[in-house]
Structure formats: structure tokens, C-alpha cells
Design a protein that fits this description.
Helix content is 24%, strand content 45%. By secondary structure, the protein is of the alpha+beta class. The relative contact order is 0.17.
Length: 123
């Protein structure tokens, strides 16, 4: 009986942990809204013109299972992992780790990589 009860408790704890992860406010699909670089903020249209690439299609999907995908122009962008750290979030892949900042007031997610901050809005 103790083994059955222990097994049930383990399953309940795992279900609770999975459920907690799915309630994170960063979970969802996000579309690039603006870019901050070189001390200036650019709209997607302005940054597209500067980079000579269409940046309006950049999206990030943050999934409740701890993974994220980034869609880039002409590239699937690959898969990354995210996790909650010190009251915030962090996203990483095989080449980098970056803080992922959720702003509840504006419902935006931002991340900074090599001095460039990308700001995403919920798609």
C-alpha cells in the first residue's frame, strides 16, 4: 500500500510541476516588434531597411515544455531551451545563453544578444 501511495504522490508532484511550467507568462508566440542597438531604437520596418532583410517575419514560440523556436527570414532559426531563473527567465542554445525579460505591463518579451536588444509582442 505504501508503494502505491508513494507512486501516486510522485505522479501528482510531476503533474503539478508540468502544470506550473505551462502557466509561465512567457509561454506563447511572440512577433518581433522593435530592435534596440547602437543606443537607438528601431521599428521592425526601420531595422529591415538598415539590415536589408525583411525582419517582419521573425517570430519566437516559447513552449510550456521548456523549449523555444525562433523563425528567421530564410531560416527556421533552430530550437532553444528556456527556464525560470531568479524570478526571471533565460533562453539558451548550443552557442549562447541570454536573459529573457518579460514585462507584464506592456506584455512584451525582450532578449539581448551582443548588445542588440530584440523586443517581441504577443502574436
Amino acid at each position: 500500500m505504501k508503494k502505491v501511495l508513494s507512486g501516486v504522490l510522485v505522479v501528482l508532484v510531476l503533474v503539478a510541476l508540468v502544470a506550473c511550467g505551462s502557466n509561465a507568462p512567457v509561454v506563447g508566440t511572440w512577433k518581433l516588434d522593435s530592435v534596440s542597438a547602437f543606443g537607438q531604437e528601431f521599428s521592425v520596418a526601420e531595422f529591415s531597411e538598415l539590415s536589408e532583410q525583411d525582419m517582419s517575419a521573425i517570430e519566437m514560440e516559447i513552449k510550456s515544455n521548456g523549449t523555444a523556436t525562433l523563425s528567421l527570414p530564410g531560416d527556421d532559426g533552430g530550437t532553444a531551451k528556456w527556464k525560470e531563473v531568479d524570478g526571471g527567465y533565460e533562453i539558451s542554445d548550443s552557442t549562447m545563453t541570454a536573459p529573457l525579460v518579460y514585462d507584464a505591463d506592456s506584455d512584451t518579451v525582450s532578449m539581448e544578444i551582443s548588445g542588440v536588444t530584440m523586443i517581441f509582442v504577443r502574436a
